[in-house]
Design brief:
By secondary structure, this protein is an alpha/beta fold. The chain has two domains: 199 residues, Alpha-Beta Complex (Quinone Oxidoreductase, Chain A, domain 1); 141 residues, NAD(P)-binding Rossmann-like Domain (Rossmann fold, 3-Layer(aba) Sandwich), CATH 3.40.50.720. Helices cover 27% and strands 25% of the residues. Strands 3, 5, 6, 9, 10, 17 and 18 form a seven-stranded mixed beta sheet that branches. A hairpin with a 2-residue loop joins strand 7 and strand 8. The relative contact order is 0.15.
């Protein structure tokens, strides 16, 4: 079928809205009419060539939300007309998947960054040429997307899909990091380095968990102000003061938990240095492969933990409905992070995001 998609024709190049041919769904696939898609830094990292993905042309997008149009004959999870969020795919058969750790699937790259289906078959063509799609088994910067039955999550129809789109990755990652990975409890202290979509979602989750000291660290005053409005008890402008010293002063020695949501070695070092003994630093920020960091080994030896976190250690089918419920109750107002753009303004949305003018751009198809 013919669809419209935002195609990147060269590494680091602009998005161009083009007509492409999308395959019909196979027996285990779901065809989704995309209503909206969030833009994530991972999309931009892939466009820049920071991920081991095939050469362009490519279609990215992995925070899709839409309506099921057709399903393969083996699909039982959803049916036409269902509202769904699209998220990441996984194999379901490796040792990590069998333990319920689907984000650490041993075949994750094959299912999400391969530029085609896991069996190497492409899903998109243009003028007889293969267009690399299936990004996170969706490529949702398009009017329609093919997904696996595994990575569609049914959501209620009384909440606008355009609002729910960011739940597929960024919001779920930040919230899940606090709730699942760190398992924050009432009375805990946490410092969040970088309050973009992921970091701000972590702040919201810290409020839900009952943390009593929630420190937002950033260099953008407007983001720090919003973090205050959303529940941060303290803010630190890292462009004006040493965040490590500030956090130690606020907490009397260090925050029980810290989160690095920037993807910067210097910031990770600060997040580790801001821990007390037995504190835990979660690393979420995406960096190019091979990025290294220098840490104080004595600090680590004295009971501090640094752990990598993917996707907030969430199981999307379980966690997304919970976040939707919290949102409907007014306890998780992540919609405050969103600014909407028409699909054809994708390059403007990306530019605004890179310039720090918006937190979470969402494309309306």
């Amino acid at each position: 079928m013919k669809i419209k998609a935002a195609v990147v024709f060269e590494t680091g190049g602009p998005f161009q809205i083009e007509e492409v041919e999308l395959d019909e769904p196979r027996d285990d696939e779901v065809l989704v009419r995309i209503v909206a898609s969030g833009i994530c830094h991972t999309d931009l990292g892939a466009r820049a060539g920071h991920l081991p993905i095939p050469e362009p042309p490519s279609v990215f997008g992995h925070e899709g939300a839409g309506v099921v149009e057709r399903v393969g004959k083996r699909v039982t999870k959803v049916q036409p007309g269902d509202h769904v969020i699209l998220t990441w795919d996984y194999c379901g058969t490796c040792s990590a998947c069998k333990e319920g750790k689907v984000l650490y699937c041993l075949n994750f790259f094959q299912h999400n960054f391969h530029g085609a289906r896991p069996d190497d078959s492409p899903t998109m063509h243009k003028d007889g040429q293969v267009v690399h799609g299936s990004f996170f088994y969706q490529s949702s910067f398009a009017t329609y997307a093919l997904a696996s039955e595994r990575n569609v999550v049914k959501v209620p129809q009384d909440v606008p899909l355009e609002v729910l789109a960011p739940l597929g990755c960024g919001v779920m990652t930040g919230a899940g990091a606090v709730i699942h990975s760190l398992q924050a409890r009432p009375g805990d202290s946490i410092a969040v380095f970088g309050v973009g979509t992921v970091g701000m979602s972590a702040v919201l989750a810290a409020v839900v968990c009952g943390c009593t000291t929630i420190i937002a660290v950033d260099i953008h005053p407007d983001r720090l102000e919003l973090a205050r409005e959303l529940g941060a008890t303290h803010t630190v402008n890292a462009a004006k003061e040493d965040p490590v010293e500030a956090i130690r002063k606020i907490t009397g020695g260090g925050a029980r938990f810290t989160l690095e949501c920037v993807g910067n070695p210097k910031v990770l070092r600060q997040a580790v240095d801001a821990l007390p003994r037995l504190g835990v630093c979660g690393l979420i920020g995406v960096v190019p492969p091979g990025t290294e960091v220098a840490l104080d080994m004595d600090l680590i030896m004295n009971g501090r933990t640094v752990r990598g976190i993917l996707g907030g250690d969430a199981i999307p089918d379980v966690f997304i409905p919970k976040l939707v419920d919290l949102y409907r109750q007014g306890r998780f107002p992540f919609d405050r992070l969103i600014q909407f753009y028409p699909f054809e303004d994708i390059n403007r949305a990306v530019h605004d995001m890179e310039a720090g003018r918006v937190i979470k751009p969402v494309l309306r198809m």
